Amino acid sequence: MALDAEATHTRVLVADLDGTLLGGEPRDRQRLFEALRRHPEIVVVLATGRSLESVRDLLRDDPLVPSPRWIIGDVGASVVDAARMTRLDDLEERLRAGWPGAGPVREALRRFPRLVYQDVPQDGRCSFYLAPEDLDDEVTGAVEELGCSWSYASGRFFDVLPARAGKGQALRLLAERQGWPREALLVAGDSLNDLSLFRLGAHGVVVGGAEPALAARVPVGGLVEISDLSGAAAVTHALRRLGWLERRTVVVGYHRPPVHWRDGRWQAPSSPNGVLPTLRAALTDEGLDAVWAAAHVGATRPPAPAPELTGDLSLSLLPVTENRWAGYFHRVCKETLWPALVAQPHLIEDRPGHWPDYEKVNAAFADHISSLAATGATVWLHDYNLWLVPELLKRRRPDVTVGLFHHTPFPHPDVFGRIPAADRLRASLARLDWAGFHTADCADNFHQVLTGTATDLPRVGVHPLGIDHRAVAALARTRRPRREDEAVQLVLSVERLDYAKAPVHKIHALAALLHQDPALRERVRFRLICPPPESGIHAYDTTRAELEQAVAAVNDRWRTPSWQPVEYVPHNLDFAEIVDHYLAADVFWVASLADGMNLTAQEYVTARTATARPGVLVLSRHAGIAQHLAGAALLTDPHQPDDLVRTLHEALSMTAAQRHRHLTEVSARMRFPAPAAWARNVIAAIRAARPVPGGLPEPRR
């Protein structure tokens, strides 16, 4: 059914009573009660084995029971509007279809003396006490012959129910009636009669001290947390984990979290630069009430990161299965969209079998972000991985302001048009309020792509990202790298394995240079630090094979007993080690076919300048940062092999004095905002954005 914005913005807590909401220490129950009172937007549904009469008495006598909006009672045979204390007859009729009545059930089961009738108020069910050793096929078979279902919980409660009844079934009908999506539900329970709630695909928490059989049988997939906390404390923790107890005025949507889950623990990035550390630093600013929404891949949801890793930043993870992630990220993002972004349209692969994965992850992100955003919130999305979110989110939440920053290049309209789903993506991007880029060229491409799609186009801003110069400079001053041979000039590249970085082009250029000037043998070495992509990505397999072949060929052709021209480092290094390589390198070589701000180039210049070392930056004309340096760097064109060779030779031929002047000029032009300031500027631009006729760019800052 179509869901309106109010329905999709709803958050619904569905919780059992005994052992769950009533479980734990009084102070924990008090905290949960007060938290729910502060957040009236959270709808409370009591899902209990108790009858309506029993629940009424409890609400009257126990002041710490949260006020429910709805009650699912009698183990799912009853559904009550708690505001009016009236039954939902239409739902109960469906749940109780075929119910023979308590009298016939008791009469049919009278032959089992081990079944002891519970003398408590009950409606639409027939409940007994039964010892675990007495639960057998004879008893359950007799129930099924009556056309009924049964539930057994806590090692003693045997409930005979209508065939279609159960807590999960009742909640499903109620959710359909109210228009609640699964992503808006948090279910909590402690016994086996709660199991059907956890099988709906909603968020869930099994509280501490629950039946072991419940924890063993809940679906595995990251949505359900098995808590060590008791009762109300576990429920409160789950609400906080989902971000429901905070009204967030800023929601960041990024496909990855700011810390990495690796080897069974959270780890912070070693570099202070890049989008993850930049956003983490900015969002922990006390003036930003923000939450970071990110995907977590795997069957088990990890624990919350330690505060020393994230500071005050709230992290809300969206679970994604490994298969879904593979189709979404490894296939569509890397094989369909990435080639267009880096101006390699001939490499675009149409993946119709995996496009639904991209759609579903984006839809899940839209729902997740919607559940985290306060009314009128600012939503800051990042990169092409979430290109479908703007349309989906705006459809659900027209009240929020949505911006998207592209850290990658943005393709020319002719290239964008070759993406198989170009029209769908274009329609979604047109729903943005604001779009940001590192360069004016990319902003212009975006504007051209969207021209004609809507009357009011997104505002556009150009905000080049810098690095944390102080952190890099301070670290560089503490390092003491050793040069193996001062007579050998070191050329360095630091980049992930990606055909867009043109690593094979550089190896071929070095080979050509040695062929043209054999005197450079034993006088130059190229060190390529090139870690592999995430496991499962195959878009760069050909590049890897060609690179390894090219490295082997040039080394075999030119090596001597004490020297080889290429040192290939195909793994990640700590940032401190990277800085050591910056300090050792005479030339930093960037030859990207297309690129953003290339933060490694900025790090190289900063590290060398901070330690008064000369150096040379050879920079691709197609890197975004090149547009901001006004020709200070030595510019090269990787599409022209001769130019790559010529520019590298020019760099190697520069004197120490020339290199000092060169690096001083480059450094003087690298005056980009510090990362935290950059992020605050972007958030301010999104907050101020409103669609304007013609999509006029925002004023230059």
TrEMBL record:
Pfam families of this UniProt entry? Glyco_transf_20 (PF00982), S6PP (PF05116)
Note the SUPFAM superfamilies from the entry: HAD-like, UDP-Glycosyltransferase/glycogen phosphorylase
**From which source organism is this entry?**
Streptomyces litmocidini
The family note in this entry says: Belongs to the glycosyltransferase 20 family.
Listed name of the protein: Trehalose-6-phosphate synthase
Output the InterPro entries linked to this UniProt entry: Glyco_trans_20 (IPR001830), HAD-like_sf (IPR036412), HAD_sf (IPR023214), SPP-like_dom (IPR006380)
The record, for PANTHER family, names: BCDNA.GH08860, TREHALOSE-6-PHOSPHATE SYNTHASE
Can you give the residue ranges of the Sucrose phosphatase-like domain? 11-214
